[in-house]
Amino acid sequence: xxxxxxxxxxxxxxxxxxxxxxxxxxxxxxxxxxxxxxxxxxxxxxxxxxxxxxxxxxxxxxxxxxxxxxxxxxxxxxxxxxxxxxxxxxxxxxxxxxxxxxxxxxxxxxxxxxxxxxxxxxxxxxxxxxxxxxxxxxxxxxxxxxxxxxxxxxxxxxxxxxxxxxxxxxxxxxxxxxxxxxxxxxxxxxxxxxxxxxxxxxxxxxxxxxxxxxxxxxxxxxxxxxxxxxxxxxxxxxxxxxxxxxxxxxx
Length: 251
Known about the structure:
seven-stranded mixed beta sheet; alpha/beta; single chain
């Protein structure tokens, strides 16, 4: 039986588009071919701030997609948000817990019934000083290799200007400023990443697949921020920085 998009998720996709309109100018480029829309697909997005899930959801509405989100278990434990996430059919990922490996099976089962799935291969909001994608975790690649499904990179830029990282106060201040400035938020759906030569049973294949996915996101992101080639124009003063997981592009 094929998975059907719940009404709750359809409503949220519509609401995301409405929420984005007063605080940002959304620009969506690229598309997903019809041949991929009919089957299971993994969408891999970079993560630049707390607002970008809303922006990416709104972009999915624009291109007529309704992927199930792989989201942290904390959201599912929240009193109201958790119920909404479950009703929308999203997938719980319990990071840093003993059963995190079970997520591979859960996502594989979702793909087996034709679902589209969207997640962040970095596993967190990037802490790279230039806000480029960090070295990815291998979970998404392992799922893609095991299920033999295409991975579509989703590069996005600008959502970090809409809402700051640091708690209630900074978030409210940047949102208020965004109501006046309406920064441009760009989301691009790229070409599928070629993983056809990789075998899940071969040691190191998942890491190579992960690197290719991050490389593809990075290449598309570079085209979205041509006027910010090294460092972002807007710097969130409360955002922590780290180079420990800096991604090294494949040669």
